[in-house]
Structures
1.
Amino acid sequence: MDLGLNGKVALVAAASSGLGLGAARALAAEGASVSICARDGDRLAEAHKDVAAAGSGDVRSAVVDLSNPAAVERWVEHSASDLGGIDVLVSHTGGVTFGTTDDFGVQDYRGAVETTMLPHIAMTKAALPYLKENGWGRVVLVTSESVKQPMAHNVLSGTARLGVLGYARSLVQTLGPAGVTVNVLAPGYHATKALKGPNGSDPETCGSEVPLGRVGDPDDFGALAAFLASEQASFVTGALLLVDGGNTRAVL
């Protein structure tokens, strides 16, 4: 299936590894030019090569602290200038520390909002003038399955990321007339550095909890992100889509 992304310009944040990299690879494979950013310059350089190898479009990369709104705005503006506009924004951030309500104070919650909610707003606001100007655009905001099913061990994520969902829903009516769709992806357990890290979980244990019997691959996630960015998804907006192998089984 041709997703209609050949020649489009896509921005993918927090793309030096994991889900962001999976999304960037998928978009590049569809012929889009892609600009990626992350905090770690060394990992970003490797990711740049990976994304460039996935497709024939141009690739740009920049070291960006997503908690700094001015840095985010500069990245968006420079990407648009270098690549000729913006058609797709995949707004993604790093994760937060795992823990329960007993583990955190008010400052921890404030930090979670600053690192996992506010960057989405900064990225989207910076990209919107370009998307509106085109009369066509896709905004994909990446959260977590915790926005649908709160988890006792991941309370910071479940609290801060809910604001992203609220922000996305507020954008739908505003951007519809401009031909811009806004959707939210809520990934569950995937084979990423965050899952395997010192504050993360054991992939085998997590996989045993998932109805499909495994954790996801970042390329699974990337495929869905690319679809939401496509021509074929033109009538999908305001959706919250779980990418969790069936792990979330709430009825509503």
2.
Amino acid sequence: MGSAPLPAVSGFPSPNHSERRGGALPDMVVLHYTAMASCAEARARLCDPVAEVSAHWLISETGEVEALVPEQRRAWHAGAGRWGAVADVNSRSIGIELANDGRMPFAEAQMAALERVLAGIMARWGIAPERVIGHSDMAPDRKADPGPRFDWRRLALGGLSVWPAAGVADVAEFAPAARAFGYAVADEGLLLRAFRLRFRPWATGPLDPRDAGMAVDLARRFGVDAGRAGA
């Protein structure tokens, strides 16, 4: 675990959390958008015991950062889904909610705040850039956040996520490579849609050699479960 301190916080207002199962420690970060009309509405829902949802961090459109759940605890942000061998994503991850309705660009102040929060989390818990994923990566059958307008490449350039090198490969290599990177999706159409949502959000048409080349590069450099055990 790294030594980066937590930002100053005034308490953790969400009651929606529990112990991490099996003694797990966070080794992933999952990014979300709130899909609500305002940050205040999102905060109210994430702190409502009836809703039974939460996240560790909430970042407003103007870059205000709120700590809702202690990082040591299991927030209820990811739900059903998996990434590589990890099926209980909540027990292995820290969740960050970005106030955004899913259609608007992410503001500069919000992205800058996210970069600061992410850097601290990754230092505190020793989380690798390839373990920073989107909700749509681990639950592509039901989630699309943080969506096509989110700037994953910006995070990667700052060492806070990963981005594939350009290249081409045989389309038959796409599915096994995408799964080796982490996508746990049987349906190949859904697999392509999830992959493109993150890495080629404006691409259309059938699977092509560029998709395959990107997936092969990611699998080669960031095989998801190499050296990791347990789900």
3.
Amino acid sequence: MGSSGCGKSTTLRMIAGLEDISNGDFLIDGKRANEQGPRERGIAMVFQSYALYPQMTVYDNIAFGLELQGADEEYIDEKVRNTARILGLTDYLNRLPRALSGGQRQRVAIGRALIRKVGIFLMDEPLSNLDAKQRVTMRSEITQIHRETGSTTIYVTHDQTEAMTMADRIVVMKEGYVQQVGTPQELYFNPVNLFVAGFIGEPPMNFIRSKARGGAVTVGGAELDVSRKLGQNPGRYEGKELVFGFRPEAVSLGPRENAFVLSAAVELTEMLGDNVNVYIKLGEQQAILKVDPHETPEIDSKIFFSIPFESVYLFDGETEKVLS
């Protein structure tokens, strides 16, 4: 995952054999595959645009790959109907794509890849054309299909919700470079740099820039002792810019023990049902808090909130790397 233009789809196309690999080795099951064509790699790809044949029925679209391989009709029929059953398409086999909803078309595209029983599935933002409700449904369906087939699935997305809910491991990319690889939990709780910390989480992590003075940083006018985050030689950061980070959902309103307690002015609130986003002013900088809707503060009021010590992140302002 990563923002637009970071190289996600290019990487996927290199894996598929649709782009040349200019340097390095690409291995499948430990064997170099750089020179292999797309057909030789045992890979099936699902595109963002569905790429269905409009003149073919759902049955024929799903069967097309096996027909190209010269499989016999009885085998093809069995595989098509079994795949359709898994995807909930049995009642739509005789329809043309134009008679289907976006979610149904995407299931047909997945079925066309699934029927080939390949070792690797590649999916390039397959849910981006669906509405919010369809995306939720398809996320769970793709996850279930992955569990049933056991095939490796490499899934490209810019939607962190898709990545966090579906992935065993996530690769976060920025401007063509891998920033971090890890489980969803590792990326959320242990980001390696500012980019990953700000990319994972909704709303994103709050960042407050401040100069280090005597093992402390200034946040909203308060001097906070962060020496425990600066390692064994906190003096080496004296006078340098640090970034104080905390997630909106990590805070609680009012003072708490074992926490930094800060005051702020409320600028705006957003009611989202199960929580409320509270936009605040911390000195000259802004931040967002995620609080219980029953604790929604008044706009223009002054509030106190607490950030547990263990929920605070500190980053080097120059290298943007996290300080352990």
